[in-house]
Design brief:
There is one protein chain. By secondary structure, this protein is of the alpha+beta class. The chain is built from 36 helices and 28 strands. β19 and β20 (about 500) form a beta hairpin. The relative contact order is 0.09.
Amino acid sequence: MRSVVKQDILSLENVINNVKHNQGLSNKEALDRLNKFGPNTLIEKKGISIFKIIIEQFSDFMVLILLAATAISVFMGEMMEAITIVAIVIVNAILGFIQEYRTERTMEALKTLAAPSARVIRDGKISVIPAAQIVPFDIIIVEAGDRIPADGILIESSNLAIDESLLSGESIPVEKHANKKLVYNYRGNINLKNRENLICMGTIATYGRGKAIVCATGMKTEMGKITDMIQNIEDEETPLQRRLAHLGKLIVYTCIFICAVVSVTGILRGEELFTMLLAGISLAVAAVPEGLPAIVTVSLALGVQRMIKRNALVRKLPAVETLGCADVICSDKTGTLTENKMTVRKIYTGESLYEVKGSGYDINGGFLTRGKVIDPLKYRALKLTLEISALCNNAQLIRKVEDRGKLPRKIRPIFTKTEIWDVVGDPTEGALLIAAAKGGFTREVLEESYIRQDEIPFDSERKCMSVICENVKNETYVFTKGAPDIIIKKCSKMLAARGIVTLTPSARAGIMKFNDDMAGEALRVLGVAYKQLDDVNTKKDKLETDLVFIGLIGMIDPPREEASEAVLKCKLAGIKPVMITGDHKITACAIADELDIYTEGDFVLTGADLDNMDEDKLVKIVDRVSVFARVSPKHKLTIVKAFKKLGHIVAMTGDGVNDAPAVKEADIGVSMGIMGTDVTKEVSSMVLVDDNFATIVAAVEEGRVIYSNIRKFIRYLLSCNIGEVLNMFLGMLLGLPIPLLPIQILWVNLVTDGLPAIALGLEPPEKDVMISQPRSSEDTIFSGGLTSLIIIRGLLLGISTLAVFISMLYYTHNVDLSRTGAFVTLVITQLIHVFECKSESRNIFEISFFNNIYLVLAVFCSLIMILSVVYIPLLQEVFRTVPLALNDWLLIAGFSFIGPVGSSFFTRKTR
């Protein structure tokens, strides 16, 4: 397309000369161009196939270890072990597949934007065609409410305003003008601020109409460039995946070491080479926590279900935990921290300054002056201001019912048959309608008293709009709204508390002072005025003269009500919230200050600042920046990369296409489910189905809880495995019979360990979960003293088990009975230990046993199963156990409590 532009589009005059805009392209020309340039569609990354999802379930490092253990078990002739391990791998794969497949189906259901159509001129006729068939040099017609189907250059426009928040992040629609004098070279790096004659794919016309020549389609459009930018970003492993991979490698090295030591020791003692090799392999298999991958998957899947209940949809299981270690959240302003709905905040009249309560498209609200609630009907200037706001207005306020009943059952309650107010037309005029409705002045009510006779539409040169209305008394009025400086020049009088008075220079200065104060608070200000017409035949150029000034209306896209509390929780949790927006610096700072994102001493950078700054300089100061304003998609990527270069775990929230590259680059990308675009949802790791910033904080908490619980069951599993290996290792070194048979070890790893470990994944959050600092990206899964806890408890567990085996062997000389005693001791000590794992800072005598009923039930089930193995004849044959007498149980109980007493002493020492 770039070469086409060089050849054919040297200036707008040449474009218009090359294309007969009264005729447009012929159908034959359009077909030729469609064949040459391709359809006007974005090249989408193919969705994840079912086959790929299945393959991914077997690519995890721990799963590969289990498959290797299976091969070893087959080699040793232990088919039962091999079958059991394969069953675990398959169950783990099924769980992961079900979760990811369901998520992909849910993502498909969340796609609500259908492929748009467009009005084009072909062969001199206006035709409606699918947007995919638009080609360069087509002439498209744009009207209010239309989604722009391709990038184009305006050749005609009438009061056209475009909502470009999808691309720029700015919440206020941008005025567009046909300017034939502007030369346009399509170089791929257009400044969003200086393109008043350009319209872009995906943006929405909110006001007026226009006609444009298409200059770019498909991947050559601004939206296409962003899509291409997204596809060039490589996916990275999550912190949890990196930590589990590290754990897997550690286990492999440990297994190799154990094999070598045991084999060499036995050979030096004169044992047969093959016998000692099998013994070493048996120990290595015992060292592998077979249930770990399945338990991690189950824990993450359970976390996903809890997050769905809290309105967060996780697309990838490992992403559940990643938010828990995020220490920077880069959040888009418009629609994420704010409502993306212009709202009137203040009204000034000659009577007083009024505060308007309520936000968004909610007509519930009130009016305050000097802190007191008032009735607007009792204040003449305020009443007239609201009436003019509704009458001098072309937007519509309607009730909207959305039925999302086709969505997956788990998230359906959030959407189904939700009745909301909506605004059709310009968002600014919509805000005026809402403010008027709060005072009881709806369009329907006012139209019973006023009939619109004529309109002087908004014009970018006049910067105002007027309507002529006649009331039931046959009185004719001109109602005008527009830029305050323009309105004030058109006024000779003002409505004060004592009535209509002359507008003196000092009064003008006072009005402009209020205007400047509102603008300083990042409010967009409009002025309103009126006059009564004595002569209905007054010429139009005289209608907007000698007006009576009524008031100023200040509005803004306000912060979400929940956002302020969410930001506070982030700061308490040691997470830095950063606002990234395309809006003006003043507006961004005002919102950031209101939400307490910005504090005194913080840096505020604009896109221009970033352009003049190299990467190294940005990295040095980025930790001190809390607001980025007037930024482009390229800047957002740069910002996220700068934080990541410092070692931060970065979350990026967004809804527009402009956010998608940074959302994908971030460690955890969070998109909006309702307002978010499909592109952003597809690249994100998590979707907020209610678009609520507060949901991110809930997800952070859930992520921290999940990671804490993963540490708990890893502590439990590895302590138990160390105990098993130590028991076997010392027994062999001492020349004793093997204390535990491989089938017994496997049963303990998969059954006794498995149920309590899964139950640990359901532990409720500890009190300090959201007031502690995030984990460092350099931390391993064993950081914070976990290694010491695992080793100490594993030693105590192994020594206790071996002590029972030696004691019973010494007194009874019965190997099967001694193995049964060691087997039961191993299980009992592990079931006691699982309660110790509920907390890393408190011992078993300080924790609450019954705040996780699932853990209690899991321990009870494991006790029933060990008793079954010991006393049911059929199971005795399989596991080679014998019944235990009362004195055996007393011996087992005594040694089983050595562990908790010893570890509680260690815990007190290390606090």
